[in-house]
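Hi support team,

I submitted a single chain yesterday and got back a structure, but I'm not sure I'm reading the token output correctly. Could someone confirm the output below corresponds to the sequence I sent? I've pasted both exactly as they appear in my results page.

Thanks,
R.
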Amino acid sequence: MSIQKIHLRKLLNLFYLSERELISALRGDIRHDIYQDSHPSQQKSGGDFHSPFWSDVKSYLHGEIDLKKQTQKRISLNPRRRRLYPLLQNGFLNWWNEKRRWSNQEYKFLQESIKGQMVFQNHELTVKVENLLSLDIGENTKRLIYPYFSESPRLSNEAARIGLWVMSRALKGTNPEEMRILDVLRGEAFSLSGYPLQGNEENLFLQNYEYILGLRQKLLKDYR
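Hi R., thanks for writing in. Yes, this is the structure output for that exact sequence:
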């Protein structure tokens, strides 16, 4: 079941979809699992829609590409990206340029790959926190930036708190104060200093997940 080994960003998206959108997403997940089970030789997919863009962001910050030109190149290779990629590009650049304008801090990429998982044994659930933008901005300070790409719903304050709670437990040996979740389309970053945990994040997480899991089990009956 794909929702039992899942990226944090996807889970946050599912948590706050409308009922109609959630049912549609879960039906798509069920159909995907059925297809994968009947086509074992095609288990590997070609990657998600947003990974190439995030890879381009990292290359841009390395000084290797012009992000705007690369975005146009991506669109020319796949016209399906024509609407969304410029929105992602503009959201990221607006945030990055504004941040650089008021902080003007030098940065370099961390050498180590920072990623982790949070496992909920009682639910046989593994939440993956991967593909961060990990920067050293001097004075022994890091920024561990996790992207949220979804157009709808936008990342709410509550969703951000849940995400930061998961990150603080999944990324062992790191400082939670250095973590950020970036709503890329809106160019808005969330941190513990701006959105401190309230102590109910675990309950909110489990309530949302258990509801989704129960709804999926009900929908699954339609495919048997």
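A quick pointer for reading it: Strands lie at 5-7, 108-109, 116-120, 125-129, 133-136, 142-148, 179-183, 188-190. Let us know if anything else looks off.

Best,
Support desk
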